[in-house]
């Protein structure tokens, strides 16, 4: 809603867990500016963006972020303090799917069977009859325009 704002129940000192997180080169992180720490803040155009860590210092991390400039998307390198950064959960579901697929492949190899690893779209709903016994059909029509003078 608002950029760089701490909302109700999250005001006050920054939790120490923020400083205990470990960032390594190649980590995917989300940039979210925290208004309580003005040092090392990201510019507003990077707020809410996701990037990859390319440099780690004592109090900050260097991040490569994609930024649209007119018709081009440029890979920008920015330095942001760790208070304004957190690990991204965007890759978690993918890594979980990879583990699950590896388990399925191993199981299929042991059983000598073939297994489908691709994600399938949700199938259409089964055919069914709609009962009108206690559910009378309703006529829907627009309300006529009434001029108010």
UniProtKB/TrEMBL annotation:
Family matches, as SUPFAM superfamilies: Translation proteins SH3-like domain
InterPro entries reported in the protein's UniProt record: Ribosomal_eL21, Ribosomal_eL21_CS, Ribosomal_eL21_sf, Translation_prot_SH3-like_sf
One GO CC term on file: cytosolic large ribosomal subunit
Gene Ontology molecular function: structural constituent of ribosome
One Pfam family here: Ribosomal_L21e
Stretches for region Disordered: 111-135
Keyword terms, alphabetized: Ribonucleoprotein, Ribosomal protein
Keyword Ribonucleoprotein: yes
Ribonucleoprotein in keyword set: yes
GO biological process terms, semicolon-separated: translation
Gene3D superfamilies: 6.10.250.3260, Ribosomal protein L21
Record-stated family: Belongs to the eukaryotic ribosomal protein eL21 family.
Protein name: Large ribosomal subunit protein eL21
Organism: Cyprinodon variegatus
Source species taxonomy: Eukaryota, Metazoa, Chordata, Craniata, Vertebrata
